[in-house]
Amino acid sequence: MQTVWLSGAEWFAVLRIGLGLWWLESWRHKDKKSWFAGGGITWAAGIAADHRWPAVRKGFDRLVKPHPRLMAHLVAYAELALGLGLIVGLLTPIALIAGAVLNLVYLVLMIHDWAEQGQNLMMVLISVGALCAMSWQSWSLDGAWGLFL
Q1: What pTM value is reported for the model?
Q2: pLDDT tens digits for 129-144?
């Protein structure tokens, strides 16, 4: 593949690292004190309660609402783990798939918000592209250790 400046694998590594930075920023900008006290889940519960799809309301009420502190920690630390994993290229295919799934969950929850849809769809697109291009081949611990070849 002919490219300018970097190889194709290196360009996909750039996308992978950028996606990792995006996830890290999602984690960084959270008000952790409020978030871990249940603020984030309370906010999401309000959105789920008014959701146009009954399955989203029911799913949120069954899975998330009974465990607000656990879910708050799970979401925040998943974003941190995704960011760090993608930046250093550790367990990259797993991080790309998990990130795409988390973005799809966010997309479904925020289906009425066009700004959120754009961000989440873009992150899913980058995840799929980076996964299919095996972006861990360049500039990653996975590549250095010979994982996922």
Answers
A1: 0.92
A2: 999 999 999 999 999 9
